[in-house]
Design goal:
This protein is mostly beta strands. The chain contains two helices and 27 strands. Strands 2, 14, 15, 18, 19, 20, 21, 22 and 23 form a nine-stranded antiparallel β-sheet that branches. It has a seven-stranded antiparallel β-sheet with strand order 3-4-5-12-7-10-13.
Length: about 325
């Protein structure tokens, strides 16, 4: 998914520790168009930019596609990150410039590695009547951020026990390990709890965690998170106890070791310096413009760092204007 903001902030992410559990509330961001699909964004925020290497979190739906227009995100670029797509309902078609064409389906994870540069599109299919899911980004560490672009698809086993169900799509938990490749230690899982259930989870004490509530409510260490809230749990404890509310709960549990590096994130780029981000933007604009005008069809995009998304005829998304100031670290 692209960051659709016309004037996206420059964000320097440091992943600072917190002394206790926090409840982070989202802000609404329209994806654009006359019937703009709206997403709820909980990462990044000014107070906290990363949870482990997780650096971006959009939660959307359930949206009736007939009213919202669904998802139609034309080809756009990425660098220095991985995208993780997770659906609760609906179907999205993915195409990228590394030659991958796949469907995003409920309960199945699609992970795209941008590495040194990739472009892709995401469009909800005609069979989709309701769209509901989450789009997440993972920052790549400096040693791996110029890796080759790639794509992985995985269908995690549904784990079932007394009063709860789980799917572990990244990392290890509940005796299950996902084969999906990451460049830093990470965890990603969907958990569904019946009303009033208390689920103690053994977790890596070196991880910080985020618990995104999709449905119902969940209480963590005495604090209650409602739909679209993100509960942050700092490192240090090897046990997280989730207490479901009266209507039960469905959550995404995300985790990872504190990232330990500062990153500059602007629009769809993750870099380390002002010059890098400016360069990425210039390269993308050079690929998609002719005589200063954005090409009308993605098949007319010139080859370059971000490649060409094959068989996609949407007009590529131009980069926003940079702010009238040098992009700088704000620790």
């Amino acid at each position: 998914m692209s960051n659709p903001e016309a004037r996206p902030d420059e964000i320097v992410c440091t992943g600072a520790d917190a002394p206790s559990v926090e409840i982070m509330v989202p802000r609404e961001v329209p994806l654009g168009g006359p019937r703009a699909m709206t997403v709820r964004r909980t990462l990044p925020q000014r107070e906290r930019s990363l949870i482990g290497a997780w650096c971006f979190l959009d939660h959307y739906g359930p949206d009736p596609v007939a009213e919202s227009g669904g998802m139609s995100v034309a080809p756009h670029p990425h660098t220095g990150l991985q995208t993780v797509s997770w659906l609760f309902e609906g179907e999205i078609e993915h195409r990228d410039s590394a030659g991958h064409h796949a469907m995003v389906l409920p309960g199945e994870v699609n992970l795209m590695t941008a590495g040194r540069g990739i472009s892709h599109s995401e469009v909800s299919t005609g069979a989709t009547t309701t769209l509901h899911g989450a789009q997440l980004w993972v920052a790549l560490p400096d040693a791996s951020r110029d890796a080759d672009p790639g794509f992985e698809h995985y269908v995690p086993e549904q784990l079932v026990s007394d009063g709860w169900q789980a799917r572990v799509f990244i990392g290890s938990m509940l005796g299950h390990t996902s084969p999906v490749s990451t460049y830093t230690p990470l965890l990603g899982a969907e958990l569904s709890l019946e009303p009033g259930v208390i689920l103690p989870l053994e977790v890596d004490p070196s991880f910080e965690h985020g618990i995104l509530v999709d449905q119902g409510s969940v209480t963590v260490d005495g604090l209650t998170a409602k739909p679209a809230d993100l509960a942050y749990v700092p490192p240090g404890d090897g046990l997280i106890a989730l207490v479901a509310g009266d209507d039960g709960a469905r959550v995404l549990l995300l985790g990872g070791t504190p990232f330990g590096e500062s990153i500059v994130m602007w629009w769809n780029f993750v870099g380390r310096t002002h010059e890098e981000v400016v360069g990425y933007r210039e390269e993308w604009q050079a690929q998609i413009t002719r005589d200063g005008v954005v090409v009308p069809d993605s098949t007319e995009v010139a080859d370059g760092r971000f490649g060409v998304v094959a068989d996609d005829h949407l007009r590529p998304i131009p980069a926003p204007e940079l702010p009238n100031a040098r992009l700088r670290e704000r620790r």
